[in-house]
Design a protein that fits this description.
- The protein is mainly beta and about 220 residues long.
- It is about 10% helix and about 35% strand.
- It has a domain of about 160 residues: Sortase (Sortase, Chain: A), CATH 2.40.260.
- The strands form two sheets. An eight-stranded mixed beta barrel has the order 3-4-7-8-11-12-10-9. The chain has a two-stranded antiparallel ribbon with strand order 5-6.
- A hairpin with a 2-residue loop joins β5 and β6.
- It starts with a strand and ends in a 7-residue tail after the last strand.
Length: about 220
């Protein structure tokens, strides 16, 4: 596993005595590392090249899967996640002189984005949830989910769908760079293959960043045995 920084736009800092630097590193840990490395930090398998960011073409439903169900449960045994999934909509609100839409994320359940794909349709299934700082913190342990971990989705027709984590990415959303905003836009688009995209705030006590977990569809995983 390796960390890959997609951007490094942090301005040069004034020199600080080495003792102060050492103290800061000990106190802030990974948060210090993130701010020093830029707006996007990605964790992928060590032999995976950093891909170019591009918007994929929408995918059609997989053959024979026109009547797939809506996600109703998500399970990731490695982090003891077993939570209901509900459909998430959005509302139109006034922000200053602008009218914008915002997602309505439930407090105690994971939320499937209703404008994303359904499991089995061969495209991007997107599910969001609060972290430990907000609501029922259904995704409070999502940052502990490792590349290679198994995830199961169950739909409202009692069918199960299995995925394996292939990538974890942390993106700065407070004062985000253009690249960070583009990445968040790209991961919400349809894909030409089936994947599961999980989204929550990061770190666990704040919402200055987003943690994105991407998992690809697999057949007969250990979780199913």
């Amino acid at each position: 596993m390796r960390y890959s920084s997609l951007t490094d736009s942090t301005p040069a800092r004034r020199k600080i005595p080495s003792l102060i630097i050492s103290t800061i590193i000990q106190l802030t840990g990974l948060l210090f590392f993130l701010s020093a490395c830029g707006d996007i930090i990605r964790v992928v398998p060590a032999d995976t090249p950093t891909p170019a960011i591009e918007t994929p073409a929408p995918a059609e439903a997989a053959a024979g899967q026109e009547n797939v169900g809506v996600p109703s449960r998500i399970v990731a045994e490695s982090i003891h996640l077993d939570a209901p999934v509900v459909e998430m909509g959005w509302r139109v609100v006034q922000q200053g002189n602008q009218t914008i839409s915002e997602w309505e994320i439930p407090d105690n359940e994971a939320a499937w984005h209703r404008n994303s794909a359904l499991p089995g349709q061969g495209s991007n299934v997107i599910i969001s949830g609060h972290n430990a700082s907000t609501g029922g913190h259904v995704f409070g342990e999502l940052d502990e989910l490792q590349v290679g971990a198994e995830i199961m989705l169950e739909d409202d027709q009692a069918d199960s769908w299995f995925y394996r984590v292939v990538e974890k990415t942390i993106v700065r959303t407070m004062a985000a760079s253009d690249e960070g905003r583009q990445y968040l836009l790209d991961i919400s688009q349809p894909t030409s293959h089936e994947q599961l995209t999980l989204i929550t705030c990061w770190p666990s006590w704040s919402n200055t960043h987003r943690l994105i977990v991407i998992a690809e569809r697999v057949q007969n995983p250990p979780l199913a045995q």
